Amino acid sequence: MLFAGVPLSTLGLLAAGLAALTTLLYILKLRRRPVSVPFSPLWRRVLRDQQATHLFSELKRWLSLLLQLALLGLVLLALADPRFTKAWTSNRNRVVLVDVSASMQATDVEPTRLGVAQTKLREFIRGLPSGDRLLIAEMGTTCRALSSMTDDTAELSRAVDAIKATDTGADLERALAFARDSLRGLSSPEIVVISDGALSDTERASAHVPLDGIRTSYVPVGQSETNIAVSQFSVRRYPLDKGRYEVLLELNNTNATPADVELSLVGDGSVIDVTKLSLAAGERLPRIYSDLSGASRTLEARVRLLGAAPDRLSVDDRAYALMPERRRVRVLVVSPGNTYLEAALLLDEYLEVTEVAPSEALPSGPFDVTILDGVAPTLQVNHGARIYLNPPEGGPIKLQPKPITDFGFDTWDRQSPFLSFIAPEDIQAATGHAFVPESGDHVVGASELGPILLTGNRDGQRFVALSFDPRSSDFVLRVAWPLFLLNSINAFAAEDTRYLSSFRTGETWNIPVQGERDSVILKSPNGQQRAIPVKSGYAVTLGEYAGFFSLLEADGSELYAFAANMTDQNESQIKPNPELKLGTASAGPVDGFSVGVRRELWVYLLGAVLCVSLIEWFTYHRRLTV
């Protein structure tokens, strides 16, 4: 016999104190108030009768005391929760893994697949046999325990209420490892998986997590497989027209039948494009939208299934992207005067240009890019990347000693961002030099006489160098001249020329944060806010939901905004799997749960308390104990 409730030491103190108090109350005698009566002989017979029944009266009082002490003892013993040692050590210990991945939000069963899983789990709790214990855990991209290994139905019910679906996948391997470690050393171990079966790489999970001696059971949920998903979504601005952008997305028809869909693009809350498309069975259709406008901050893709069959999973019907801020690029120009250079920089309204002569002191900055026209002064790190036009001898870019004449671009790197939208074969120069590249430099363009367009790093800063004065060529007379300058500036100002990749759910997000701080506040799409830590300039958190997020200061001001998407293709395949294979074997059905009265001693002890209370009530009103 062992006791699983209140410790015996505590119960002993309670029993001693309460028994002493109860006995004391019975020992105390009632003090009667003397009253004068007109004729005392009248009471002599009454006093003789009282003396004759005194012994019987004392016995009745002791019987009442014994009933009260018995009642007290039964209550305290019930609090101790006595268990038979053999039953406690031989009954089952189960870890229940509840799938909370994105596919469990499917509405093919009422209210959702996760809702059905919670209902089944509550039935298991009501039918939990005496001595059996459960541990309930969420199985998402991580595995999180929601209860201890217990048979306390109240704690288990609270754990079921705390289960929430996420916009991530389900990591079966990690969940099985957690369950195996939780069951180590316990009798009759069992793992119960409640899922729709949309689990990735079950063979790998079973191979990496051996479950020797542990029984596995599977509870399938779900019925339908109808679903359309936005599986990829990215956006970029055009380098030379930051008010316009292009979108690359992909639609996935996970059904075994063709589907007609309606695709909408929503910018800053307003619809900017609507397209109707037809997808073959199982088709993944990429789409490119070019030359779009109408969104300055947020962009969203929405897909809707047309026809009678409803889309059963909504979380993958939307994808999100956040457009970068169209900030002004700070450019420092060190030149004795160059009208062609000044005119080209006027073409981009998002350039903030500062011009100084070579003889003047350089401003401290900071600058994103510095353009050096025929000069090579010593620059600081905060002067940014460098664009050298006709650099002089003795500068950071080494030149061949002999000048070259009448040359052009005979070869060039067609993938280089510096030459985007440019036809360099048409450019001819009268005079200039050829470069001598250093280790790590990259030749972007060259003539037969040597490299004439070079990029690399000097003093920790990127650079691009043109080996001739543009004014001694026809370069400045072509559209290629402003394109080259703007391409170079945009290449160094990086953020507007790259595809914008949203964060992916199910991964650890490292969100850049400027300034020194220990934590920031993460505001989720549903409006909830929580503090997350900042490590080495990055706010770190596990991404579990899709949508638009914000990082906030303590006063509520916004530091940074970003988007996150659910793009796990395995979760979009919502066809339920009635069987869970782990290695060569399949998980069996769940048994051992039957709704009824649990065979626990404390239940019977409370019943005994009720019986003794009824006996005490009956004897009191029958004047047997008073």
Describe the structure using short key phrases.
alpha+beta, eight-stranded mixed beta sheet, 626 residues, elongated, seven-stranded mixed beta sheet
Can you tell me about this structure?
- The longest helix is centred in the first third of the chain and has 27 residues, at 54-80.
- The chain is 24% helix and 31% strand.
- The radius of gyration is 40 Å and the shape is elongated.
- It is an alpha+beta fold and 626 residues long.
- It starts with a strand and ends in a 5-residue tail after the last helix.
- α3 packs antiparallel against α12 (601-621) and α5 (113-126) runs antiparallel to α6 (153-161).
- It has twelve helices and 33 strands.
- It has an eight-stranded mixed β-sheet, covered by helices on one side.
Report the sheet-strand fraction: 25-35%
- Helix and strand composition category: alpha+beta
How many strands, what sense, and barrel or not for the largest sheet? 8 strands, mixed
Work out the oligomeric state of the chains in this entry: single chain
Poorly predicted parts: 495-500
What is the total tally of β strands? 33
